[in-house]
Amino acid sequence: MRLEGQHTGEYALMTVISALLYTGFFVLNDLLFSGFEHVVGVNWIYLPSGFRVLLVLAMNWSGSLGIMLGGCYIDLFVHHETLGPVMLGNGIVSGFAPLVIKTWMQGRGWFTAQLNNLNVFHLLHFVLLYAACNSIGHQSLWWLFGRPGADFWVDIWPMFVGDALGAILILYGLRALLPLLGRWLPDLRA
Fold this sequence. Notes:
mainly alpha, Arp2/3 complex 21 kDa subunit ARPC3, 5 helices, 3% strand
């Protein structure tokens, strides 16, 4: 029984960390790339999408749930989205689109749950499939619920490009930093 409580606590902590990281990178993205905003909620460069990928790859359900909670927080307090199906739907699409793609790719044998066989080719496919799933999911949700100012056929492309570019920038930025981190933290090389 104690072990179950420990795991629950770990999952809750990972969920909170995911929500904070996702929300923090949203704020950073707004500071750096606010000029690249196409319309509210659609950016030509969206760094948090890279953290969606990383958090889901590393933390699975906890990462997805944290992203969902962070997305709902952003919609409520930043975009001032009303409580209801659009806010909840945005959170669900944001958090679970990358998990759906990860699960699908694992089912095809492209990589394992431990991320074995994950190479640059598979990671790029993951990013592109996730960006497509996320942009189609969000734009469909906004069209379905008549979100003011949403234009499916116009907004889907900048959202796809922004998600893909943001994820690629985060992933390759992290890859470029790994040698530096390896020098500062020798235990990472092992």
